[in-house]
Amino acid sequence: MLKIENLHVEVEGSPILKGIDLEIQAGEVHAIMGPNGSGKSTLAYVLAGREGYEVTKGRVTYKGQDLLEMSPEARAAEGVFLGFQYPVAIPGVSNVYFLKAALNALRKHRGEDPLDAIDFMKLSKEKAALVQLSDELTKRSVNEGFSGGEKKRNEIYQMAMLEPSLAVLDETDSGLDIDALKVIADGLNTLRSPERAMLVITHYQRLLDYIVPDVVHVLIDGQIVRTGDKDLAKRLEAEGYAEVRNAMQP
Amino acid sequence: MTQQPQTLLDSIPASFDTGPQWLRSVRKSAAEVLRERGLPDKKTEEWRFTSVRPLVATEFARADAEAPKLVSPAPKGVTVRSLRQVLEQEPARLEGRLALGESEHFAALNTALFTEGLWIHVAAGVVVEEPLQLIHEPPKTTEPGVSYPRVLVTVESGSEATLIETYPGENPGQLTNSVVEVELGRNAKLNHVRIHENPGLQVGRVEARQEADSSYRSVVLTLGGALLRFDVRALLQGQGAECRLDGAYLVDGNDHVDHHTVVEHQAPRCQSDQTYRGIASGRGTAVFDGVVFVHRGAQKTEAHQENRNLLLSDTATVHTKPHLEIDTDDVICSHGATVGSLDESQLFYLRTRGIPEELARAMLTYAFIEEVVDRVSHEPTRDRLREAVLARIPAGEAVRGAS
User: Fold this and answer.
1) Domain CATH code at residue A74
2) d(CA A241, nearest CA chain B) in Å
3) ipTM metric
4) Residue B378, Cα to own-chain centre: how many angstroms?
5) What is the number of structural domains in chain A?
6) Which of A46, A65, B66, B162 yields a CA-CA distance of 20 to 30 A from B191?
7) pLDDT by residue (tens digit) across A131-154?
8) B357: nearest CA in chain A?
């Protein structure tokens, strides 16, 4: 589904990603772990199409298409979803209102009829329940006055509404207490499916106790230095990134 | 009968021979002030960013009928009368109420020259639910024409009313020079909505004189125009009075829109709050100038003002100057102004959900002034305004379609 080849990315002239290779198949959950400043969020933003990230080398192919050529909304239409580490508040734009516009734009792209208000609200209630997001929050301005945990649950609610093929989840666990983490993990596990791939970016192993990944990559200083199964995450937790970094020194 | 076209200053008569003595004397002093000062130029501080030069030399034809039309029924306890008629039949009732003779230039001009208008009177203790709706139809003059609409609104103590004024226009050469005076008795409340859909020229002044515990809430929506200048002045004269002045304006093309507010805190424990939002695109110019005076003795004043502007093009201009002049202790005051473009991170967020860029921009643009539109409590008017605003923002159509 997603193939990243020798990806180099600069931000304001400084190299951040220095040759990433990564391939994800439908149905797989990959985790990317790495310390602060290793380039995790940059990778997420590049995949979603944020401006200000210059790809200097390499390519990204998604469902056979050149992903990097596509606008953020075209990527979304093709099924790419980014769960933000810091979801922005948008005063004056209500959550359900913009999601309805978003969902109907996607449905139009897929050649489906738009959902009417009643069907939309029914779907919204069902998906909000998945992450225990209250009706009141779904109707409020996007993320305005939301707590940290509510913002993250709102991200997963939106993902559930939009049903992406590839979900890139950028530190969805950051700032969450253990109860909120379980709610989010349960929501995400429900959304696992043979047609859907997930790229779960995290600093800590904790999230991966609940969302068990098929593959774990360790990203340090813009490069994937180790790839393994879920046990790699546990080793990382026990030994720390320093050990892994030292172990790779020649 | 339409009079011969004349420049604004030439149209001031040498003497005033009709009407009650007090009015003649008010008009006479207005005329004297104008002859002495002339019209404002770029050295006039309050007109620094708005040039009226195009108006000075123009010869305007004057129309006869200038009374705004009341398009809603006047409920029990509300009387709406022609100013001309009251001046003929019971002139004493208006003495001291039609003022502004020595006020700012254009209000003085209106005071010297108005011939017709309305007096809206809400009797004491009357609460009117349905809004009173006034339409200021532009008079049928040949271009360029001028009219001087005048409205006096008296809300007696303990009463409550909503007034919605609409200033439409078709003729870009038509100058409307309007004055609305508002008198609020003790504990009286007025919600005052003004909608300016005039593509041409207008100078308008609202002055609210407030007794103790009264409340004046004003929302102005200005949807572009060649040269529009609006002043609101609220005089908080009695203890515990409050005013809320809100506004939203859009400029595009070569529009020039200027809003000035003045709040005079003259008594203790009064509150004022101002929120003005503007969207500037094309080669449009928007001006906001708001001043709050807290006079000596006005302790426990609370005054806030905020002006935020969204700049959508490199060729649009925004001037903003909220300021405070405080002459007493024990007050809570704040003011602030911003001029900026759309937030890139908000835009990106919406796009990652599949919202096309154009629609995302339109959504964020509308959201910027929606808060002000939402302060119009009369739902049909609010819906109409929403439509009118969406019609004027880029890709606004799409926002309507998406909701």
Assistant:
1) 3.40.50.300
2) 31
3) 0.96
4) 18
5) 1
6) B66
7) 999 988 988 999 999 999 999 999
8) A73
